[in-house]
What we know:
Structural class: alpha+beta
CATH class of the largest domain: Alpha Beta
Shape: globular
Oligomer: single chain
CATH topology of the largest domain: Muramoyl-pentapeptide Carboxypeptidase, domain 2
Radius of gyration: 20 Å
CATH architecture of the largest domain: 2-Layer Sandwich
Distance between the termini: 43 Å
Number of helices: 10
Amino acid sequence: xxxxxxxxxxxxxxxxxxxxxxxxxxxxxxxxxxxxxxxxxxxxxxxxxxxxxxxxxxxxxxxxxxxxxxxxxxxxxxxxxxxxxxxxxxxxxxxxxxxxxxxxxxxxxxxxxxxxxxxxxxxxxxxxxxxxxxxxxxxxxxxxxxxxxxxxxxxxxxxxxxxxxxxxxxxxxxxxxxxxxxxxxxxxxxxxxxxxxxxxxxxxxxxxxxxxxxxxxxxxxxxxxxxxxxxxxxxxxxxxxxxxxxxx
Length: 248
């Protein structure tokens, strides 16, 4: 029995040693790293740390926490981080096109991007920007009523929608959402949006991370510097933060 215990402790120590050499290793999460590694032995240590930092080791919404800095351009609003119900973004001026505008900084960048795209023969429009908690609640409930099983993969629950931050832009043109991926507008955005501070928020192949189906029309403002880094490394916003060193 003692030999088994010693072997078990040795294995755990080896596992922990691999984790602790990583810059994005968080000591407070070491038990989660070990447990996730045991459940997924084929994953590399770096992937284990990355996924646990994101929260993938837990079911979506199971242990969601309230966002502490909702006004940050880099706020992560997802199925692990929920906005306060009464939150309205700062520097957001309501108008008659209430849900077709963004926070002022994001809107200004979008306007410049739209102008430059037009210069290149591409027409892009903001079809949905800021969305209140109540508006998202109604949208989610509609999806829930129509397709109960798929609702969470195509719509955010109230409080977990980036639209409430005023930093998310649904972009579309004459194309339907189903065809936007194949449009010249999407190709232009894929090659240029990061220059204006926008990232493709829910990319194809990253559904297991974001929790949402691929949305070629959904773009998120994070500022030019971070957008460039995310674009160059082909990351999601979750991966970007999960890769940051502990002392960042």
